[in-house]
User: Which sequence fits this backbone?
């Protein structure tokens, strides 16, 4: 690489890193408890479990569960219904003052007895909620998400420029060398280079999938305004649904329309995941991959007949497949632990990088990057 | 300033390939696929830990 090129890439690496470092540190630190979100919520006593009953206890009709819920919360309307495949005994219900209520209320009901379970704390309790918002949107909604997405983009630039600089800065060292006999600056430079290159692909994947996640709201809006709008065109101008068809019947119909799949999520008419005239029933498969990508089935909320069952568009499929690759929640406890360790290694790369910039010193700063590369190697 | 490609990039490319195997295999299936994923990513993490935490046997006190 020519000296001029080293200088250019150095400039890119320095500035893309400097601008994003504080936010990347925040994301790495808040991401750590999020990896163990399930365990932390449980340890804080913020999770709600259904009582143990014999495995063959019959399940109540979903309609009965809905009736119990609405009787317990008069004035509310149903928004969503969902079931975790690991907790088939619990229905998670969302109610609100309207189908598009931003201050919706999450509730839980026993799927066998159709009785309400204690109200779960919002977002897993105060601590996890705080970590979640710092990690996802900085309490600034869509703009917070998009801002963090932009910081993620800078991270990708920093990673790529870091790879370009890796060769000139390490060309005379055996792989993995950390020169302990040298000054702290040299040791930390070596550590930065070694851990940076070891975690590179993981950081690229987690960074890129994180960026995709920040676009989730926008991608959903595109789907609502194109494919979903297209499917509901024939219903334009019709009066609103007055008497909703049975949700249990709608779920049964959806199961017949998608053999081998089970219902994961159902949206009531008027919510963003349905139309004013349809239930949106989202079916999922059983493999790690197909359980992530639901098949939406639109069911006429008045007649209970299937209107359409189309696959999700590619961009929503990409979003949903990218989510596990960001969360690290798809390979059990070993994967979670490795995710946490890689996260910690990334924190070391960030801190050593920042240290190298702070301790660059006047003499070092005056030297062009290509000279520092020659000296470093 | 030509650099030999092999000595510099062999290890990073192997580690990158192992990371991809680790990330993708757990996505494909459970059981054996999860184990393969843990093994592949485990090697990557172990290499990082070995390089980062290892101390030379003869400790020369570093000059600060």
Assistant:
């Amino acid at each position: 690489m020519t000296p001029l090129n080293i200088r250019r890439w150095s400039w890119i690496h320095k500035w893309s890193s400097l601008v994003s470092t504080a936010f990347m540190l925040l994301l790495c630190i808040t991401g750590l408890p999020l990896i163990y979100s399930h365990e932390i919520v449980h340890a804080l006593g913020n999770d709600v479990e259904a009582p143990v009953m014999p495995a063959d206890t019959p399940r109540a009709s979903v309609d009965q569960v809905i009736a119990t819920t609405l009787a317990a919360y008069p004035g509310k309307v149903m928004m969503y219904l969902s079931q975790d495949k690991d907790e088939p005994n619990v229905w998670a219900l969302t109610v609100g003052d309207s189908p598009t209520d931003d201050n919706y209320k999450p509730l839980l009901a026993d799927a066998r007895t159709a009785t309400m379970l204690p109200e779960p704390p919002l977002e897993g309790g105060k601590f996890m909620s705080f970590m979640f918002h710092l990690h996802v949107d900085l309490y600034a909604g869509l703009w917070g998400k998009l801002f963090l997405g932009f910081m993620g983009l800078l991270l990708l630039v920093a990673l790529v420029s870091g790879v370009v600089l890796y060769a000139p800065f390490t060309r005379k060292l055996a792989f993995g060398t950390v020169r302990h006999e040298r000054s702290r600056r040299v040791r930390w430079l070596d550590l930065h280079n070694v851990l940076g290159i070891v975690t590179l692909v993981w950081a690229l994947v987690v960074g890129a999938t994180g960026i995709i996640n920040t676009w989730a709201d926008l991608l959903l809006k595109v789907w609502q305004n194109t494919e979903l709008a297209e499917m509901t065109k024939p219903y334009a101008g019709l009066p609103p649904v007055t008497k909703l068809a049975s949700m249990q019947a709608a779920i049964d119909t959806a199961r017949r329309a998608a053999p081998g799949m089970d219902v994961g999520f159902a949206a009531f008419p008027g919510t963003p995941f349905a139309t004013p005239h349809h239930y949106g029933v989202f079916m999922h498969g059983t493999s790690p991959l197909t359980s992530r990508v639901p098949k939406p089935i639109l069911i006429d909320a008045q007649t209970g007949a299937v209107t359409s069952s189309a696959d999700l568009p590619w961009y929503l499929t990409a979003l949903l497949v990218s989510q596990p690759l960001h969360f690290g929640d798809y390979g059990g406890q070993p994967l979670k632990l490795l995710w946490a360790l890689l996260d910690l290694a990334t924190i070391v790369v960030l801190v050593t990088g920042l240290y190298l910039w702070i301790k660059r010193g006047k003499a070092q700063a005056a030297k062009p990057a290509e000279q520092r590369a020659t000296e470093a190697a | 300033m030509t650099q030999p490609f092999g000595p510099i990039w062999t290890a990073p490319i192997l580690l990158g390939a192992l990371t991809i195997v680790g990330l993708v295999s757990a996505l494909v299936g459970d059981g054996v696929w999860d184990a393969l994923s843990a093994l592949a990513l485990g090697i990557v993490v172990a290499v990082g830990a070995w390089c980062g935490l290892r101390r030379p046997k003869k400790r020369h006190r570093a000059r600060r």
In short: Residues 5-28 of chain B form the longest helix (24 residues).
